[in-house]
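Please discuss these two lines.
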Amino acid sequence: MERKQFSLGDIVEMKKPHPCGTNAWRVIRMGADIRIKCTGCDHSVMIPRMEFEKKMKRMIKEAVKEE
């Protein structure tokens, strides 16, 4: 199975919606754990990378790359 691609600053859609009603989350920290912030209410959650990859549905918006 191919691993899902994501990077810092990307906005991703998760399989289950947040209680505030939105499905969009921004990736704000990467490592062994991933920290994501809800785009609706700014609540942040840290989850293990493997769990994040299972719960992530798709990429909504890629982060702007500054060079």
About this structure: The chain is about 10% helix and 40% strand.
